[in-house]
Amino acid sequence: MPFVTTSDGVDIFYKDWGPKDAPPVMFHHGWPLSADDWDSQLLFFLQHGYRVVAHDRRGHGRSAQVWAGHDMDHYAADAFAVVEELGLTGVVHIGHSTGGGEVARYVAKFGEPSGRTAKAVLVSAVPPLMLRTASNPEGLPIEVFDGFREALQANRAQFYHDVAAGPFYGYNREGATPSRGVIDNWWRQGMMGSAKAHYDGIKAFSETDQTEDLRSIGVPTLVLHGEDDQIVPIHDAAYKSIELLENGTLKTYQGLSHGMLTLNPDVLNADLLDFVRA
Fold this sequence. Notes:
It comes from Parvularcula dongshanensis. Keywords: Oxidoreductase, Peroxidase. By secondary structure, the protein is α/β, with parallel strands linked by helices. It contains 10 helices and 8 strands. The relative contact order is 0.16.
């Protein structure tokens, strides 16, 4: 399997599909998943003539289960290691949830300074800040994230099943028809990764203030968010992000969940392709 080794010795797994001279699109997955969460989008963009790249974040999926470095700075640096290894330029970076935070930090710290980034997309993404603080009174209280940590430590397998079978895909809504395959695939990806990485990742996605990352991004940036997102509420994320971005475009989806890239690929893929082609 293809890996790149980072400067601090971490092996990062990646997929690199398509012609090497095709326009590159790189995908950044959410917590606690892997590059496999982008299956629909990888195949879709490959069929439309793009080179698609997706990696497993450190401690997730097939990447090394190291004990340290589970924060946005390392996530972004690891992504840059993949970009450098593959010699990618003119890249469109698409991130979902925690992967959206990774994209924001990456573009701000590495992508634009290196001149390698063309555009960015934040899908149901965590920036600018999920946690309630004195300067972010609309955020979620720390008790919510403490509950995540407690549930993960007590019974990670059951916690991951409950998240996938409930709020992640909106399967807890009246009239929803849960898909056993979707739930099992979420659980499979989560259980492939490291409990330590996932535990630390809760702090990374909830407590990292990315206000300045968003302010510093100059490339065209598309913000996509479901209006019924129960994991990353739209008022904590997309509505605030679009106010901070210099060159941002916001599109929201009535009734769609946090997992809309999996449940509604026909809608998401078309909008992503339009933005990438523009």
